[in-house]
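Running co-folding for glutamine.
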Amino acid sequence: MKKALSMVLIGLLLVGLVAVSGCADSTETEASENEVPVYIVGTEPTFPPFEMTDDSGAIIGFDIDLINAIAEDQDFEVQVQSIGFDALIPAIQSGNIDLIASGMTITEAREEEIDFSEPYIEAGLAIAVAADNDDIESVDDLQDLVAAAQIGSTGHAKAQELVDAGVLSEVKTFASVDVVMMELVNGGVDVVINDMPVTQAYINQQPGVIKIAGEKLESESYGFAVRSGNEELLTMINTGLQNVIEDGTYDEIQTKYFS
Ligand code: GLN
């Protein structure tokens, strides 16, 4: 009887020990969970529905939700910072930011300076004109016209190409897309060359003022970008992207911003 009791006591003691060490374990896990890496994400937030500001000034959008979903999947956190589009690549090179999530088109020229993730969405360039302008159906109708584009964008590059080819007479560049659109609305330029889904979002906000003329000019894919050689972060982004596509999160985000 005495022996049986002491066996029970030893048993209880063991359970107690396991419980205590279990506790110690979970405290340790919690501590390391609090120390997840925080990466600074740069974005130019006049690019709806990919990145824009809400009424409180917070940066929201498709890219922001997607990079947050990837971060959650891969156990890191992001802090989003507003940066001029043409300053994003210099900012990542100087180490001021770790990641670009800014509707940035994957181009060969940029691949020389930064490393892109796998493409996460397809977009493309379009010509926009005033809603009452029925003269323009394609690039061939742009002879001697003045265009506006966002500085450093692929729309800017396309417009410059058309200036160099003797088609457009001039391209005026502006730091943000809202100003580019305002320039068209105010009649300061004849056309805008910008990413089609973004121009469509501006049209949706203010129907009947501007419209898309003709077909998509060029097909492009967006990628997230990291500093050249930052394989660790790039792998996390690509793996996380794959996971959020497979588990349906990507589709939810797409429905939220494109329906
Ligand atoms: N997709 C275009 C580019 O990469 C424009 C991006 C943007 O203005 N945010 O140049």
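Result summary
Residues 123-220 form a domain with the D-Maltodextrin-Binding Protein; domain 2 fold (CATH 3.40.190.10).
Residues 44, 47, 85, 102-105, 150, 153-154, 177, 195 surround glutamine (CB under 6 Å).
Job closed.
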